[in-house]
Amino acid sequence: MRRLFWLAMGITIGALVVRKLSRAAEKMTPAGIGASIAEGLRDLADAIGDFGADVRDAMAEREQELRAGTGLDAPLPAAGDAAVLRRGAHAADL
Question: Under a CB-based contact definition with an 8 Å cutoff, are residues 27 and 33 in contact?
Fold first, then answer.
């Protein structure tokens, strides 16, 4: 019974080692290397796309902050306020 156990253990370990080595050998072929490079480039493109989206989101948020701070989104003055606009902001304070 003990010999049968060790025989089964040896066959199992041998099969696992052969599978691991065949996977490693497959990665070393030109097709395997090409697939690895292609996967790396896809990951890089995804990372660059995510970075660009983050930058665009941050730009839009900052633009909203700047518009709110400078009043660029305020409504336009009425027609009666046109004289004040022609004289300038300093003249209106006088």
Answer: yes
